[in-house]
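User: Run a structure prediction on this.
Assistant: Running it now.
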Amino acid sequence: MYPELDTPALVIDLDAVRANIMEMAKAAAKHGVRLRPHIKTHKMPELARMQLDAGAGGITCAKLGEAEVMADAGIDDILLAFPVWGEPKLRRLAALRERARIRVSLDSPEVAAGLGRLGGPPVEVLVEVDTGQHRLGRPPGRPTADLVAEIAAVPGVEVVGLLTLAGHAYHARTPAELEETARREGEDLVATAELCAVDGIELREISVGSTPTARAAGRHAGAAHPRPCLLGRQPLRPRLRRRERAGHHRTPRRGPRRGPLTKEGTSCGDWPASGC
């Protein structure tokens, strides 16, 4: 196919990348939400810049190393979607905050206490909510509202919002199941934010989304709570795993066939393309 290239080599179809980026940007604009794509798969400042130029309101990183690379490239609005723990990492975070706006997700007062010791302006944090993946966070509703109150009382941090990853959406077998997962994650976070407001803690942002639910998450969060003060500030945080690796060819693995690949590279079985 490309005889001039030695292997291994990463080949990127930029036309497909641009189409994927624009599709997600249009989906976010349609639902009146702000897109904050996750860069943990492509890890490339050039692709992150393309996403920002298409309208993304910042990026999401999975680890400090990724955030440092992006900040080195001049990207200055980063959500670090994993708790930062331990003095070495806290020192790196402190240095990173000197050159970029960094927000951190967390699910414990202990992590918040470490962030609060960094000094300088309060660290903006989003409290993670467990909407079904059972990886991080407490269940939505009162358990999370109580956790928000605990973290908000920690000196040196400011709770600005809620965050969830509906990773369990990958187990959905039909478009209807995906739609229901997206509806639940949006409505659960909005209802939890309302409880926090009753407790006297106003949250500015609700962060939802995963690759399977990205197209629907913003719609359901908006339908559940059509208040511009929330809708206008919700970052939709899709994980663009295979979507931005169009042109990347993998060796077939043994096991059950999961269906043909669409032009986005996502296995959809017999589902219509719009449902993937």
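Residues 222-276 have pLDDT under 50 and may be disordered.
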